[in-house]
Amino acid sequence: MNGERREHYLNVNYGVRSWLLTTDHKRIAWLYLVSITFFFFVGGFFATMIRLELLTPQGDLVQSETYNKLFTMHGVTMVFFFLIPAIPAVLGNFLIPMMIGARDLAFPRLNLASWYIFIVGGLFTLAASAAGGVDTGWTFYTPYSSIYSNTHVALTVVGIFVTGFSSILTGLNFIVTIHKMRAPGLTWFRLPLFVWSHYATSVIFILGTPVLAITLVLVGLERIFGLGIFDPARGGDPVLFQHLFWFYSHPAVYIMILPAMGVVSELIAGFSRKRIFGYTFVAFASLAIAVIGFLVWGHHMFVSGQSVHAGLVFSLLSFLVAIPSAIKVFNWTATLYKGSISYDAPMLYGLGFIGVFTIGGLTGLFLATLGFDVHVHDTYFVVAHFHYIMVGGSVMAYLGGIHYWWPKMTGRIYPEIWARLAALIVFLGFNLTFFPQFVLGYLGMPRRYHIYPPEFQVLNVMSSAGASILAVGYVLPLVYLIWSLRYGAVAGKNPWGARGLEWETGSPPPTNNFDTTPRVTAGAYAYEKEPGEVYSFGKTAHV
Amino acid sequence: MSDAAAVQQHQFDDLEQQHEAAWIGMWIFIATEVMFFGGMFTGYIFYRSAYAQGFAGASNRLDVWLGAINTAVLIGSSFTMALAVHGAETNKRKLLVNGLLLTILLGSVFLGIKFFEYHHKFEEHLVPGSSFRFEGPLARPAEIFFSFYFAMTGMHALHMVIGIGMLSVLVFQARRGRYSAAYFTPVEITGLYWHFVDIVWIFLFPLLYLVGRHL
Fold first, then answer.
1. DSSP letter at A88?
2. β pairing state of A535-541 and A516-520
3. What is the pLDDT of residue A3?
4. How far apart are CA B51 and CA A81, in angstroms?
5. What is A378-411 written as a DSSP string?
6. CA A20, A25, A26, A30 torsion: positive or negative?
7. Which chain B residues have any C-beta within 8 angstroms of a chain A C-beta?
8. Alpha-helical segments (H) within B60-205
9. B40: Cα separation from own chain's centroid
10. What pLDDT digit, counting tens, does each position of A99-149 carry?
11. Which chain A residue lies closest to B128 (C-alpha atoms)?
C-alpha cells in the first residue's frame, strides 16, 4: 500500500517445499482447503451422476451395480473427506490459534502430520474408486461388506481408518491448544463461541473416532482372514457392527454441525453488531450436544430388531438433543432482534443456515419418533433430513465462514455482488433439490434405488433441476474467490469492523500471528466497546 | 547438557507450558486408545455373555502359564520404565539409559513369548478362517473367541512394537545427553504410553485366559 512490502505468512518464503514442509497452522489450513475442495468436487461429481440417473424412472444411465458404487463413493467422499474435516481442518486450523492469541497450535508438526495422514487416507479411497469402487453404501453394513460384496471394501476401509487418525490428532491438538495457550486475560467465558464449538467437536473426535477405527479394523480382518465376528452364518452378530458403527457415526453428524454452529455464531454477532444473546447457554449447548450425541446412536436401529424398550429410550434421548440445538437457534434469533443488521454475503449464508438447520432439525424430531421412523425408514425422507443438516447446515456455514475470513486469509476482498448472488443461488438450489425428497420419502420412495415407479418422476425431476442450480452456486465462489486473489481490493486488517483477536492483526497475518502478545480485558463480541478497550498489545515482541 | 532455549519450541512461552501441553496431549491420546480398545472389549463381553460355554471351552486352549509369565514380564518392564524416568529426573544418565534398555529387552521377551503362543495356535489350527478346527458343537463360538483373541492381543502387540520403537529413539537421544532434570518430557510421556499398554494387558489377561476356566 505505502510501497513498503509487509512480511506475512504467505510471502515469508516461497516454493513447493516451503508449503509441503510448513508447520504454520495458517499454511496447513490452506493445504486442507485445497485438498478438501478437490474432494468436494469429486463427491459432487458422483452426486451429479446420481441425480442424472434419477431423472427418469428407468435405469437407463447406469446399471444397478454402478449406481450402488456411485452413491457409496458419493457418501464416503463427502462424509469422510469433506464434511467431517471441512470446518475444523480449514477454518479451525486457521483461526483457533489466532482467536486465542497464540503463535501456533500446541503441536505444529503433529498438525502437518495430520494433513499427510488425511491425504494418504484420501489416496487409498480414490485408488479404491479408480480400481472399480465399492457398493456397500457409506455405512458398510455387515455381513454384506465383510463377506459378500465383491468390491474394494478393504482398500476403502483402510483409507477411512487412516483418515480417522487425522481427525483424532486434530482434535487432540485443538484441546491442548485451547487449554494451555490462551492469551493473558482470555478466560474460558471470554472465548469466542467458534472456539467453544471446536472444543466440543474435538471431544467427539477423540472419543468417537477410535471406535469407528476399531470397527473398520474388524470388518477388514473379517474380509481378509475370514473371522466370523459379524457373520451370522458363523455365529456372529451383524447388529453389533451397527451398534459400534453408529456409536461413532451419529456423533459424527455433530462433528459436522457443531463447528458450523460456531461459524454461524460469529457471523450473526458480526453482522448484527451485537453480543450473542445468552452466550453461556450457547457455549454449554455445544458441550451438551457433544455429550448427548453419544447417547442416541440407537435411533438408527429402530427396525434392526432391538428391543422396544431400547427403542423407546433411544427415541427419548434423541428428543433431548433438540433442546441444546433449539437453544442455539433461539439465541441467534434473539441476537438478531434490534441488531443493526447488514446483509453481506457471509450473513446471507448465516441466515440461510438458520433456515435450513431448523427444517433439518425439526424433521430430525420426526425421525426420532419411533412410529414415524418405521414408516419412513430408509426412504428419501431420511436422505432429505440428513442433507438438510449436513449439506444445508455444514456446507452453508462453511461457505459463509470462508467468505467471512477470506480477507483475513488472503488480504483481499471478493466481489460482494457475486458473492451475494452465489449465496442466494445456493439457498434456492439447495431447497429445490432436497425439499421434494421429503415428499418423495413420505410417499414411500426408498433410498438407494435407481429404478422407481413413474408417479415419483415429477418430484425427482424437481430435485435434479435443483441440483444443477446448486452446482452453479458451488462453482461460482470457486471462480470469483480465485479471481479475487489477484484482482480483489486490498482488505485491511478489519474489513468488517468486527470484534475478535483475529481481526487485531494484519491481513494476511504475520507468521507468529501477532507482533506482540495480546492481552484481553473483555468477553467476545464486545461491540459496545472500541477494540482498544478490549485488547491491548504489550511491548514485548514475540520471538 | 541441553540448555532450555534449545529444546523450547517457538509456539510456547516457557518450558513449563510446553511440558504441560505434552502431558495433556498424551493423556488425551490415551483416552482415544481406551475408546479404541473399548470397541473390542465391548464386542468380546457381548459374545462372552451370548456364548458363555463356547468361550470358556476355547479359553481352556490358551496356555495360562505363558500368559502369567508374560504378565510378570510386562509388570517388570513398567518398573524398569519408571526407573528410567526417575533416572532422567535425578540426572542419572546411566540409570536412564539402562532403564530404557531393560524395558526394551522385557518388551521383546513379551513379544517373543507371544510369537511362540501364536505359532502354537497356528499348529493347533486355532487360527480363525478356513483351516480352523475345533471339535464338538461349540466350534462356532470358539472361532469367534479366537477371532477376538487374535484381534485384541495382535492390536496390543502392535502397540508394544510401536512403544519399543519410541524407546529406541529415546535411548539414542539419551546417550547423546538430550535429557536431564531440566528437560525430560519425551521420556515421561513415553513412559505414560508404556504403562498404558501394560494396563491394557492387565485387562486382557484375565478376560482371555482366566475367566470361566476349569483348572
1. I
2. antiparallel
3. 53
4. 39
5. TBHHHHHHHHIIIIIIIIHHHHHHHHHHHHHHHS
6. positive
7. 9-12, 17, 20-21, 24-25, 28-29, 31-33, 35-40, 42-43, 46-47, 50-51, 127-130, 140-141, 143-144, 147-148, 150-151, 155
8. 64-89, 93-123, 139-175, 185-205
9. 15
10. 999 999 999 999 999 999 999 999 999 999 999 999 999 999 999 999 889
11. A227
| Cα(A470)–Cα(A463) distance, integer angstroms | 10
Which residues are bridge partners to A412 per DSSP?
Answer: A490
Which residue from A139, A55, A133 is spatially nearest to A450, judged by alpha carbons? A55
Q: Which grid coordinates are listed for B38?
A: 473399548
pLDDT classification of B3: cutoffs 50, 70, 90: low
**Which amino acid is present at A21?**
L
CB contact under 8 A, A172 and B32: yes
Query: How far is CA B70 from each of CA A36, B76, B115, rounded to the nearest angstrom?
Result: 46, 10, 12
Nearest to A515 by CA among A106, A26, A28, A101: A101
Cα gap B176→B173, rounded to integer Å: 5
Of A106, A180, A229, the CB nearest to B43: A229
pTM attached to this predicted model: 0.94
* Three cell numbers written together for A360: 433439518
Among candidate residues A421, A399, A283, the one with its CA nearest the CA of residue A350: A399
pLDDT at position A39? 97
Alpha-carbon span A344 to A350, nearest angstrom: 10
Query: What's the average model confidence in pLDDT over A457-483?
Result: 97
Contacts of B107 (CB under 8 A, 6+ apart): B74, B77, B160, B163, B164, B167
Angle between helices A308-336 and A238-272 (to 10 degrees): 10
**pLDDT per position as a tens digit, A194-214:** 999 999 999 999 999 999 999
- Banded pLDDT at A1 (limits 50, 70, 90): very low
- Using CB atoms within 10 Å of the CB of residue B91, give its burial: 0 to 12 exposed, 13 to 18 middle, 19+ buried: middle
**Residue B107 grid coordinates:** 518388551
Pick from B46, B50, B128: CB nearest A226: B128
Scan for cell 461457505, then name that residue. Answer: A399
Angle at A223 between CA A221 and CA A226, to 5 degrees: 80
| Contact between A281 and A327 (Cβ < 8 Å) | yes
What 8-state DSSP symbol labels residue A301? -
- The per-residue DSSP string of B28-41 comes to HHHHHHHHHHHHHH
**φ/ψ (deg, to 5) at B61:** -85, -10
Q: Which residue has the cell 482371555?
A: B208
Q: Please tell me what DSSP assigns to residue A273.
A: T
User: For residue A349, which of A299, A405, A302, A295 has the smallest C-alpha distance?
Assistant: A405
User: Cell for A402?
Assistant: 470462508
- The x, y and z cell numbers of residue A445, run together, are 420412495
